[in-house]
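Q: What would this complex look like in 3D?
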Amino acid sequence: MNWLGWLHDFFADPAHRSGPDSVVHRVLEHLAFSAEALGLAALVALPLGLLIGYSGRGLFVVTALAGVARALPTLGLVTLAVLLAGVGDAAVLLPLTALAAPPMLVAAAEGVRGTDPDVRDAARGIGLTHPQTLLRVCVPAAAPTLLAGVRTASVQVIATATVAAYVGLGGLGRYVIDGLATRNYPTTVGGALLVVLLAVAVQLLFALLIRLAAPPGARPGPRTRSRRTGGAPTDPAPVKTDPADSPALVKETP
Amino acid sequence: MLDGEPLVRWRWLGDHLGYLGDLTADHAVIALVPVLLALLLAVPLGLACARFPRLYQPLAAVFNVVYALPSLAVFVVLIPYTGLATRETVMVPLTCYALAVLLPTTVDGLRAVPEPVRQAATALGYGPWRRLAAVELPASVPYLIGGLRVAAVSSISLAAVGALVGRGGLGYLFVDGFQRTFPTPILAGIVLVALLALATDLLLVAARRVLAPWARGVAR
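A: Here is my prediction, written as structure tokens for the whole assembly.
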């Protein structure tokens, strides 16, 4: 397979160097509507998740909802939205938001829920009100879990935003879809590779953010590194793929 | 935009029941066989990771990246090897995605076995391997099934994207409906994908009730 040849053709094409079909422009487009969808989802999902996690009410609904949302095929939602609303940003924005919201909602709820009850009691005991306890104690403690949820959502949205090109919008999917349609393989492979790179870059960025967001005491510094793992940086709070994993839930559900 | 086209043409649905059934069956194979394959790979890999913890970090890192790969991009990149519109083009990446979900849950499950249980098994004369297979693996069944539920549902939803490279089961309905500005097949596709996911999920919950009756009420 002449992979390198394809990539060379892709990047050597003058149309990919400047203008509306240039790599830089497509990457920015891709990032722009991914960020819009993520921002919108965060605006809705994070406050709701924090409240649900703090009050402990409605957790069942959240997990059930997340399960349903996971089953919805984005390609179907996008095509349907375009038929109903016409080609436009909204047609892609809404399905992508629906994709991004559940992981954030679950992570926020689980993260806050997972705060040590003793720590919470202590916060209440020194006179913090409920909102103060939530914002000053639970949110910082849940930050790594929260960020891991945002990471999952971001990676999924960036990967899925490729589909937007199918209904005529821009972004990196343009290369993949146009290349497929015209049997121009270098374009398709180049576009696919760029999406992969973008997704991996975002994941690495979040890995860094998650390490920085961990409270100083819980950071894997030189002292706390365990000898067993050879000091390899560990993900402090991987998103639980199943709430059954959460010890708090195992104990408390009837 | 729809020019007077109704959202659902019930007659079309009635006329195409057999066709929809065929697509659903195809979709189930494309989406769920990879999950089964991934399970067959995840259990031995997970056991090995639990036995030799050093193995886990690099494997987990690799699968973290794998999970970030956009499905459409991977399908496209695989076409020269597995062919356009073949099942393999879609099933190979789906297996990797499912494995990326299942391996961590398997290892988490094995690690979550309470220490006293482990010690009791050791006291009964179980060696490390036999203890893993006969005590820790059954004890981690609720975790495994939790992972399977996530993997199966995502796989069913992801398989639809395969329609863009010519083999996506129910996903074909989205492409078809979009090209003809005909919302009925799209809606039918969305509903059938969701129903297939729901049915699979319920089946897995039932399996957990049978295989791990002690975990009742633990799950969502």
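A: To summarize the key features: Chain B touches chain A through 62 residues (CB under 8 Å). The two ends of chain B are 40 Å apart (CA to CA).
Q: Very helpful, thank you.
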